[in-house]
Write a structure and sequence with these properties.
The complex is a heterodimer of chains A (193) and B (250).
Chain A lengths: L8 H12 L3 H23 L2 H18 L10 H24 L4 H16 L8 H11 L3 H13 L3 H8 L3 H18 L6
Chain B lengths: L3 H12 L5 H13 L4 H12 L13 H16 L2 H4 L17 H35 L4 E8 L7 E7 L4 E7 L8 E9 L6 E6 L7 E5 L8 E10 L10 E6 L2
Helix pairs in contact in B: 1-2, 1-3
Classes of the chains: A mainly alpha (193), B alpha+beta (250).
Chain lengths: 193, 250
């Protein structure tokens, strides 16, 4: 695997501006920088290589179309495209679930546990200093907090759905998410633009 | 009053997009009451936006890049030429389709319609200007009231005539129908001709009403008098019959 390119928000914002003017070379540069991290998120959410590839294609088509709308005052380029990828992935996941009804409760719980174990595994590769910091911050959460937050972020479940799947009171889930997010916010203070 | 802990629960769950509908309504109401709280929500949202970076990196298939850019190229080609200009010039010419001509056809149609409307408007304005000039030119407009002879005291007619347009109209009231093989004929007396000039014949309706658009055979520069005489059917070149109505022109 190639080493990921270092994150440079100002350079990446300039790339988005050029893409907004129709510069395909800048889009190619952005692809080199972001494709791995965005594909990883899509794959994590969709748990299917073909779906994740289709999703990544949709994301870059959208970047090509909407780059001119990027507003640097609302966050780094990476967080902008990350949100785009996450939201599209969750939409697609829900659509797939509706279509195929493959994700029953037991499977979902099993996957969630599998995901937690996967993050704990040794073969981690980071795309940037931000990635390292986020990974370390997430590891400082309690397993319960991490699980609840990841079920919300990567599985698109509501708090009520998370409570049902984990067979925990709704208030407990709300408290876990609140405490976990407060802790992450404190730990990542220097990385939040 | 919502406690600060509950507010944080709302912000955290909203940032993760996992807020239930009821709580979402409470959060919306809270932000409407206290807009300054929005900044706290934003800080949670920015924290949540970093979570994707926690995922172990997996590189996509290298062939995917070619597929992605092929799709972008295909989409770019399907769009209007003006949008295609956003991209760098390509060596390969885009495939021609009739669909691509539709926007241009619409533009051409719109331009032709606009030109036609402009032409019609210009013509209408010119016609109106001519008519206005004629009407407002005092020397070109003449009017008269014609009265019946002593045997027809209730008979009368109104006339208006424009020497610039060489046209006029005469309307008759209370005139009996002409005898068989006879018609009423209108005559215009000008200052330049010794004899009156024929301006046409007309019929009388059951109520004694009649009208005629006047188009004299020769040019009339100044109108002095108008006459209506009873003539042989079809009209005559020179007045011969009795005059039944007459009037001086003002």
């Amino acid at each position: 695997m190639n080493d990921p390119l270092p994150s440079d928000p100002e350079f990446e914002a300039a790339l988005l501006k050029k893409i907004g003017n129709g510069d395909k070379a800048s889009l190619a540069e952005l692809y080199e920088r972001y494709s791995t991290v965005l594909y990883s998120v899509a794959l994590r959410i969709l748990n299917n290589q073909a779906e994740a590839e289709d999703l990544l294609q949709d994301v870059f088509v959208q970047i090509w179309d909407k780059a001119a709308l990027y507003d640097s005052s609302r966050g780094k380029p990476l967080t902008w495209v990350m949100s785009m990828t996450r939201n599209k992935s969750i939409d697609r996941l829900r659509s797939l679930q509706r279509r195929h009804r493959l994700h029953d409760e037991a499977e979902q719980e099993s996957k969630t546990q599998e995901q937690i174990q996967h993050i704990d595994g040794p073969d981690r590769v980071y795309a940037s200093e931000d990635s390292k910091a986020v990974r370390q911050a997430v590891m400082q959460l309690s397993p319960e907090q991490r699980q609840a937050i990841e079920m919300a972020y990567f599985s698109g479940l509501t708090q009520t759905e998370i409570a049902e799947r984990l067979k925990q009171p709704l208030g407990t889930i709300k408290a876990r998410i609140r405490r976990g997010m407060l802790k992450l916010r404190d730990l990542l203070e220097g990385h939040i633009q | 009053m919502i406690s600060s802990e509950t507010q944080e629960e709302f912000f955290a769950a909203s940032a993760l997009d996992c807020l239930d509908a009821e709580d979402a309504a409470h959060l919306q109401a809270l932000l409407e009451r206290q807009p300054a709280k929005t900044s706290e929500l934003v800080s949670f949202q920015r924290t949540a936006s970093l979570l994707g970076l926690s995922v172990p990196a997996v590189a996509p298939d290298p062939a995917l890049k070619e597929r992605v850019f092929g799709e972008i190229e295909r989409i770019s080609r399907r769009r209007l030429p003006v949008i295609m200009n956003r991209s760098a010039p390509s060596a390969a010419a885009p495939r021609f389709t009739f669909d691509s001509l539709l926007p241009w056809a619409a533009v051409v149609l719109l331009a032709l319609t606009s030109a036609w409307l402009w032409l019609q408007n210009t013509r209408a304005r010119a016609d109106f200007a001519r008519l206005r000039d004629s009407v407002l030119q005092p020397n070109s407009l003449h009017a008269s009231v014609l009265w019946g002879d002593s045997t027809r005291p209730q008979t009368r007619a109104e006339l208006i005539f424009c020497t610039r347009l060489q046209q006029g109209k005469l309307v008759v009231h209370g005139l009996e129908s002409p005898p068989p093989d006879h018609v009423y004929q209108v005559w215009l007396q000008t200052d330049s001709a010794a004899a009156p000039v024929s301006a046409g014949v007309f019929r009388i309706g059951p109520g004694g009403e009649g009208e005629i658009i006047l188009r004299p055979a020769v040019k009339v520069n100044k109108l002095c008098k108008v006459l209506i005489s009873l003539e042989k059917a079809g009209g005559v070149p020179k007045a011969e019959g009795p005059v039944v109505l007459a009037g001086n022109v003002m």
